[in-house]
């Protein structure tokens, strides 16, 4: 199985990067330079018509969307998601992944990238403030869930842990206070002790170093 992950440092492509490391998969990483618009070029759009990362190129073809990539990898490698015994259990797993992708991630984007939504400093500050407010109840949900066990699904690590860890990194990096969310903070600390996660973070840091060396690292206010 040949696997190539198209990724940008700090982006949600970190979720499959952590997943691939946890799976012990043999894979290549291709850096996508947002500032050069590489993700909007015809060759990339042919693989990912929405022009986003992550993209996982496989022997079967390109797999896009974090939810689909997580499920695809979990079908190839053990230990990435619980094995659903019923359609209902399967739906719960999809709902968990979709909660991250469809409910929380858009709020992260508003917090981190208000310039995608509006123009002008005042309008951007307003979008960011609203996103901080919208994040609070979502953070509470995640924190409560993580207070029930070591990992999202209790004793077993899963892609959900990678997903909520990426969200934690993004929101605390954007100034959202994690102080009230002690279970989530403890989860993030536990993630950082895992060798596979350390390897993924090191790979992501290499991508960032490449962008910086090329003068292509985005600068945010
Ligand atoms: N629902 C998508 C979200 C992908 C997404 O928004 N990726 C961002 C990075 S976190 C991106 O590629 N942004 C670049 C852009 O929109 O130009 C997924 O889960 O794969």
UniProtKB/TrEMBL annotation:
CDD domains in the record: GST_N_Beta
Span of domain GST N-terminal: 1-81
Signal peptide region: none
Domain GST C-terminal, chain residue ranges per copy: 86-211
MF GO annotations: transferase activity
Domain of life: Bacteria
Gene3D superfamilies, A to Z: 1.20.1050.10, Glutaredoxin (3.40.30.10)
Pfam families for this protein: GST_N
InterPro entries found in the cross-reference section: Glutathione-S-Trfase_C-like, Glutathione-S-Trfase_C_sf, Glutathione_S-Trfase, Glutathione_S-Trfase_N, Thioredoxin-like_sf
Keyword set, alphabetical order: Transferase
Protein name per its UniProtKB record: Glutathione S-transferase
UniProt organism field: Pacificibacter maritimus
């Amino acid at each position: 199985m040949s696997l190539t992950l198209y990724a940008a440092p700090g982006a949600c492509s970190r979720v499959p990067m952590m997943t691939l490391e946890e799976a012990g998969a043999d894979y290549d990483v291709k850096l996508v330079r947002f500032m050069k618009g590489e993700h909007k070029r015809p060759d990339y759009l042919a693989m990912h018509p929405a022009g986003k990362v992550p993209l996982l190129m496989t022997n079967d073809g390109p797999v896009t969307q974090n939810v689909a990539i997580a499920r695809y990898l979990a079908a190839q490698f053990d230990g990435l998601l619980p094995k659903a015994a019923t359609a209902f259990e399967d739906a719960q797993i999809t709902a968990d992944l979709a909660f991250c992708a469809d409910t929380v991630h858009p709020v992260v984007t508003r917090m981190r990238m208000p310039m995608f939504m509006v123009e002008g400093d005042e309008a951007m500050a307003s979008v960011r403030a609203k996103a901080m407010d919208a994040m609070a109840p979502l953070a509470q949900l995640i924190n409560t869930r993580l207070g029930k066990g070591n990992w999202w699904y209790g004793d077993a690590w899963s892609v959900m842990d990678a997903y909520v860890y990426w969200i934690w990194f993004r929101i605390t990096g954007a100034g959202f206070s994690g102080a009230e969310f002690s279970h989530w903070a403890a989860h993030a600390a536990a993630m950082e002790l895992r060798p596979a996660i350390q390897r993924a973070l090191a790979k992501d840091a290499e991508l960032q170093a490449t962008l910086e060396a090329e003068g292509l690292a985005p600068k945010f206010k």
